[in-house]
């Protein structure tokens, strides 16, 4: 069920609690400058998997409560595929859709989603995000995810990154490190810096950025810091509430003492 929008920053930020497949069709065609989003991967994360059983697997106690993500089962693939034509419709020509995606196996999600993105957009790039120290598991332990970039044809690509940006986001001093979520955080939280990286490459201050799968609002926080307008959509009321507060806190800090920093975040230049 979709609720009325929450308006922040004098109308520059609009947040919807509802299904993106219901809300995206209400946005004007060609009105958006960039889509940056992190859809559910369809892997049932933190719902009986090794992430959920991490403490027990490491001999540190019992499993905590499962924190399943809405629409993170097999239906995630269909939702992603249905979202793409709407993202294409609302973007202006030359603008890009940047979607976080898994990497590696055993599910070749990155291959499947890349082909679906290419059916709708001009497939521009698969960017590898090296998250830093290796993750959980065994036999090729996970250390990276990907960001798939599709471009809407009809105009020159909106690109503001010069000629020195590679298709790997590397770890280290200038890298973007993964978040190891606390029990009160979204189990698949992405850092503000990751969103800021793509927002900075494909938009300018005053442009409109849309995130159809907002989660706790890191894309909105990046937009608040970087002077972009923002529309965010989140289906889970609990995470929506967190996102509203987090973005408002960022706006309050921006208007007084500067950007509000969470642990593991750096200032975005």
What does this 3D model show about the protein?
By secondary structure, the chain is an alpha/beta fold. It has a single domain (6-254), classed as Rossmann fold (3-Layer(aba) Sandwich). It has seven helices and nine strands. It has a nine-stranded mixed β-sheet. Helix 3 (75-90) packs parallel to helix 4. The model is unreliable at 52-58 (pLDDT under 50).
CATH class: Alpha Beta
Oligomerization status of the protein chains:
single chain
CATH architecture grouping:
3-Layer(aba) Sandwich
Examine the coordinates and then state which fold CATH places here, giving the name of the CATH topology: Rossmann fold
Order of helix and strand elements from N to C terminus: EEHEHHEHEEEHEHEH
Q: CATH homologous superfamily, by name?
A: Vaccinia Virus protein VP39
Q: Distance between the terminal alpha carbons, to the nearest Å?
A: 38 Å
The overall pLDDT average reads 86
Structural class: alpha/beta
Low-confidence stretches: 52-58
Give the helix tally.
Answer: 7
Radius of gyration over C-alpha positions, nearest whole angstrom: 18 Å
Percent of residues in helices comes to 25-40%
| Number of strand elements | 9
**Backbone shape:** globular
Q: Can you summarize the main beta sheet?
A: 9 strands, mixed
State the domain count.
1
State the strand order across the main sheet. 1-2-9-8-3-4-6-5-7
Q: Approximately how much beta-strand content do the residues carry? A: 15-25%
